[in-house]
Design goal:
With 312 residues, this protein is α/β, with parallel strands linked by helices. The chain has nine helices and 15 strands.
Length: 312
């Protein structure tokens, strides 16, 4: 099977940038030169993003990023797509590269990394508390068997959830946490350490690295993994999954959802139909119509897609 033509790189690195504004312009120029699209977030705590383009362009861009202060160790999760999953390139400066809202947390003081090949043994060991640090709509389409779902709508809700449930963890818990690409669980483990939990671990490279490297017959993963681009979800070997994206609420839509009378392509899905009025649904329908017309002309309708913030 031929490799799809578009290379997708999900990346992050916690480091300390003194002047993000000085880095943003050169990064945007380098992406344009390499034919890259996607999103890069810069903050005093590091860099985070997902970018896509030709293989040579991605390789060149990763070289540029690794030359940034403290980024030599940066690892990227590489996958492939038949079509470009982004419509533009954005380099943005933020307060945090993944928003937790805990300014005193040092993400460089995080828990122990666990390699994907060792993850099964850790989460199956008696006494290990496994926590999915992702949001509720992500957990709903796939997770590790037995993992705790905090039920959060955003990562900013995670600290409050932990503090409200601290007593359920016991006095000296062994905690294993995971997320999509590794970035949220790095920060979550740093948070738990600051809260007094010493024995805390996180999956290196996140679910994406696990699905890429652990054979399906040995995998403890159940379902699909939500990703923040037009692939919507991936499975083992990072193959595109069965979910699509509701263009109204940006939630993943399953095959069963698409069979519902509340699902109208480009307009509504069972998750959002009751929360949108007729005027809003008409607006979504028009946007979808314009996108289809642009596609028929071989063009890209930028307004048809509002990429989610990059998370990992």
């Amino acid at each position: 099977m031929d490799t799809p033509p578009i290379t997708v790189a999900a990346l992050y690195c916690f480091t300390r940038f003194e002047d993000c504004a000085a880095l943003a312009g050169p990064l945007a120029e380098a992406c344009a030169k390499a034919g890259i699209k996607g999103t890069l977030l810069l903050a005093p705590e590091g860099i985070n993003g997902t970018i896509a383009g030709p293989a040579a362009g991605i390789e060149a861009m990763l070289g540029v990023i690794r030359a940034l202060p403290g980024c030599a160790r940066l690892e990227a999760k590489i996958s492939h797509a038949e079509a470009m999953p982004f419509h533009r390139m954005k380099v943005r400066i933020k307060r945090e590269i993944v928003t937790m809202g805990e300014p005193d947390i040092d993400p460089l003081d995080n828990g122990d990394y666990v390699e994907p090949g060792d993850w099964n043994a850790l989460i199956a060991a008696p006494g290990t508390i496994v926590v999915d640090t992702r949001n509720d709509y992500e957990v709903a389409i796939g997770s590790f068997a037995g993992a705790i779902d905090p039920g959060t709508r955003t990562f900013r809700d995670f600290p409050a959830w932990f503090r409200a449930n601290r007593e359920t963890f016991g006095d000296s818990p062994r905690v294993a946490m995971f997320c999509t690409g590794g970035i949220r669980c790095e920060k979550a483990t740093a948070f738990l350490k600051a809260e007094g939990v010493a024995d805390v671990h996180h999956l290196r490279g996140g679910i994406l690295k696990y699905l890429e490297t652990v054979p399906p017959e040995e995998s403890l993963w159940q379902g699909e993994c939500f990703v923040f681009d037009e692939r919507v979800a991936v499975g083992h070997d990072l193959q595109r999954g069965s979910f699509e994206l509701c263009r109204a609420c940006r939630m993943p839509v399953s095959e069963a959802d698409r069979a519902s009378p509340l699902y109208v392509e480009g307009e509504s899905c069972p998750a959002c139909h009751a929360t949108r009025d007729d005027e809003q649904r008409a607006g979504y329908a028009e946007r979808h119509r314009q996108a289809q017309l642009a596609e028929a002309r071989g063009e890209v309708h930028i307004g048809a897609v509002r990429p989610r913030p990059v998370r990992g």
